[in-house]
Hints:
The complex is a heterodimer.
Chain A: E1 7-14, H1 19-33, E2 37-44, E3 52-60, E4 74-77, H2 80-86, E5 95-99, E6 113-117, H3 119-125, H4 132-143, H5 149-157, H6 165-188
Parallel strand pairs in A: 1-4, 4-5, 5-6
Antiparallel strand pairs in A: 1-3, 2-3
Helix pairs in contact in A: 1-5, 3-4, 4-5, 4-6
Chain B: E1 9-14, H1 15-26, E2 28-33, H2 40-52, E3 56-59, H3 63-75, E4 79-84, H4 86-101, E5 106-114, E6 120-124, H5 129-134, E7 143-145, H6 150-167, E8 170-176, H7 177-181, E9 183-188, H8 248-263, H9 266-269, E10 272-275, E11 282-287, H10 289-303, E12 308-313, E13 315-317, H11 321-328, E14 333-338, H12 345-352, E15 357-362, H13 371-383
Parallel strand pairs in B: 2-3, 2-4, 4-5, 5-8, 7-8, 11-12, 11-14, 14-15
Antiparallel strand pairs in B: 1-9, 5-6, 7-13, 10-12
Amino acid sequence: MTGNAQRELVITGFGGQGIILTGNILGKAATIHDGRHATMTQSYGPEARGGACSSQVIVSDSDIPFPYVETPQILVCMSQEGFDNNRPSLIPGGMLIWDTDLVETHDLDPSWSLFEAPATRFAEELGNKMMANIVMLGFLSALTDMVDPESLKKAMLGSVPPQTKEKNEAAFVRGREYGLAILKGKARQGAEVS
Amino acid sequence: MPGKAVLTGTHFMNGDEACCEGALAAGCRFFGGYPITPATEVAERMSKRLPQVGGVFIQMEDEIASMAAILGASWGGQKSMTSTSGPGFSLMMENIGLGLCTETPCVICNVQRAGPSTGLPTLVGQGDMMQARWGSHGPYEIIALCPASPQEMFDFTIQAFNLSEQFRLPVLIMADEVVGHMNERVVIPPADQITVIDRAKPNVPPAEYLPYHPGPDGVAPMANFGDGYFMHVTGLTHDERGYPTMTPAAQVEMTDRIVGKIRNNLDRILDYETLFLDDAQVAVVAYGISARSARGAVLTAREAGLKAGLVKLNVAWPFPEDFIRELSGRVKTMIMPEINLGQMVLELERLAQGRCAVRLVAHPGGTIISPRRIVEAIRQALEERP
């Protein structure tokens, strides 16, 4: 994927996973560090935690009139409900990313590029499953150039509590390296990754 | 912990937060409010930020009291504000009228959600636009600004305070859930580049002061409680001294002043932007978040060779009557997209008086209007026989 055109992404999960924060970090990286345009909108129910929620991010080189994402190019699923509800919206040729242990996929469009990572498990191994979103962010940074990886890391470090920076950085790196390894494997198999 | 009143720099923040920062940059030092989705983040940030800059935050028992508190704070000399949404806005109506009658500067931010009643607390609406104009009783005029982005939440909140101080009245910011909750780039300029207007103070000895005697622009200078001026503040019809005067003549004089401050100063209040209007056959007139959908639609229409133009209302009340009247004489159709079942479109119909067609693209709330629907309305308008 090139970095020029408008990129539209949806991250879904449930309240408490840091879904909105993840979208916020992406937007911050794009606007403050990359100097581009970005919007982040969110949808959530009346519950503070546990309910379905999603974060919608648009990154563009020009200003963004309509801030809702109706047909994302990238869909990141951190919950089964999030996958079930949002799967039909992903465009043909889009990229689907999910947490291996939280989502069972079905009805996949053959035109999609598919990537899974055990983000929550990795986060648990690193000491706190609350960091699953940051693992996912690192994973995402390897798979798309929607935002610059260094900008993304900077924005992430500026958005988490200071005492957790080191652990979150490790989570980001874990996700990113896992993503890069998958890409390398796919390249070896001759699979085309767009 | 002390903090800066003006957070100069580039931020990625939501509209509610930007509203709070705009208020602080404008000199607001008192917030009285009651939390309600989707306006809670304004109050939340105020509760953290105001103590950093020597201000006062009070969570009141409800929205009636919140409105009363900011009126009182204003008479005490502070720039004051509250924020709310639908149900809270309804409760504020009586005291907004008190603020208009007592000519008390303050700012009310309504982050609109879908109603009626409790409606859809976390989802967008624009259904309080006529309530903003007519929700309190009696004859009055009101100023209502409609931001369409977090940046405009910052800019328009400063403008709302400036207008309220200039004209001594409550000013409304009619935002909505998407503008309030959406994160986007917000650039906060250095403090010395921000225009801040403070209310005129009396320059006569206390014995000669009349709290409702208008100056040349129709606005009376306002003393603070405790500054040594004799003042009487009442919601009853009053004379220039502020004393209740139960006569039709006093009513005429007072309401002339209250509405005249706005009607005679339209050039200082009205604010709208236009795009591609010169040769437009269809004009999309929109405000708040719907102005973004409208802009997207007009850009798409132009790419398709359709002669569409945009009017973005930054100030919805007072309505730009002369401009819309003139516009209706040179376009085929005016289209109003709004997230209600038809409110501001009535103003277009009233002013067009049949000179052009007027069409509504409506949604009752819960989502913003897709540009596709507006493009479709533009196509239909161009195909319609005159």
